Amino acid sequence: MNDYILVLISAALINHLCLLRQPLSGLQLQVHGLACALCIALGVIGAQLLVHAVLAPLHIHDLALFLLLPWLALLAWGLPWLLAKWRPAWPVVGLPALLLSNAAALGLALQQTSDGTTWPTMLLKGLLTGGGFWLALMVFADLRQRSAHADIPNVLRGLPIELIGAGVMAMAFSGFNGMFGQ
After folding, report:
1. Whole-angstrom Cα distance, residue 79 to residue 130?
2. In angstroms, rounded to a whole number, what is the distance separating the alpha carbons of residues 147 and 95?
3. Alpha helix (H) ranges present in 101-157?
4. What is the DSSP code (8-state) at residue 59?
5. Membrane spanning segments where (predicted)?
């Protein structure tokens, strides 16, 4: 269980600082979080299928990275299109570029396929990573909103206060490290 918490937190904090450049509206934030969660979960499942159905029988495990990149690119371009078809009012403009730069999907897919973990564990880690990313988007959006109206010195406005908030959140989340024994 400890691994699940660490995957959730690290994916949430690291990817948020890399992916989110401008403040998003509430609906854009929810759509982005949902699309990232789906991309990570489906990417991990597809990676497992790819490794066990194609790479393992041919004994070419070294090509996993080069075969996972097109799979994740397909997901990054296909998921916003499917979300736009499913809910036309949802803002998906610019979403494929953000999903393409999501390192959590590739990192988790490579890690899970090399570990030999079971399907339910892999699906759970994928969903938790996506959920953690979504949670981090919401927390940082709240941090931005609160810091916009708070009495903060001008030197700390913007990225400095966000990095301080990320550091405090990382310290708080690291307290969960020994909470769940294996």
Report:
1. 14
2. 26
3. 103-115, 119-149
4. T
5. 31-51, 63-83, 89-110, 122-141, 161-180
Residue with tokens 């959730």, as numbered in its chain:
8
pLDDT in tens, 58-85: 888 888 888 888 888 888 888 888 888 8
Other beta carbons less than 10 A from residue 30's beta carbon:
16
Q: What phi and psi values does residue 74 have, to the nearest 5 degrees?
A: -60, -45
Cα angle, residue 84 at apex, residues 82 and 85 outer, rounded to 5°: 65
For residue 99, how many other CB atoms are within 10 A of its CB?
Answer: 25
Amino acid at site 15: N
Beta carbons within 10 angstroms of residue 61's beta carbon: 11
* Residue extents of the structural domains in the chain: 28-146
Which pTM was predicted? 0.72
